[in-house]
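Feature request, filed as a ticket because there's no other form

It would be nice if the structure record came with a short human-readable summary line next to the tokens. Right now we just get the raw output. Example of a typical job, pasted below so the devs can see what we mean:
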Amino acid sequence: MKRPVLYFTCLAIAAFLYSCSQGNEKSKASKAKEETPLDSTCYVAIDAKDTAHLVLRRFEDGKYKGHLLINYVDKGKNDGQVEGAFTGDTLFVDYTFKIGTVNKTVYKNPLAFLRKDGNLLLGVGQIVTHVGRSYFDKAKPISFDKGRFTFKPTDCRK
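Raw output as currently delivered:
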């Protein structure tokens, strides 16, 4: 009586492992397809002696991912990844970055860019943090007139 239970258990485990490995191959292929960008656009912004470089990659699902580097002359650099999507003419992203080269702390802040005349204007708004997540306060408007950086398209260098 114990042998049929043992055989059944082994057969069930083998079927489970086989199905798991098949699903991984399919998910890897679909993920690779999703991770192929449709296009990339590079931007540069200058405010006095401070500069910023932004690379945005657009994907089939309407999401944008990229890299943002802001060089502050007096404070060092903020270097990290952006990920988000457009809502109308405004790109809302989460900016995950480190400050300087020795700081190991990773910060995550929301950013908003208004698309206007082919440029991206960085907005300034009230940020609220709730349960460890930062976002723009919906009760207060984001000002794109007060932003320091206007990102202009530039050639992407590899």
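Something like this underneath would help us a lot:
Residues 98 and 104 are 7 Å apart (CA to CA).
The chain has two domains: 1-35, 39-154.
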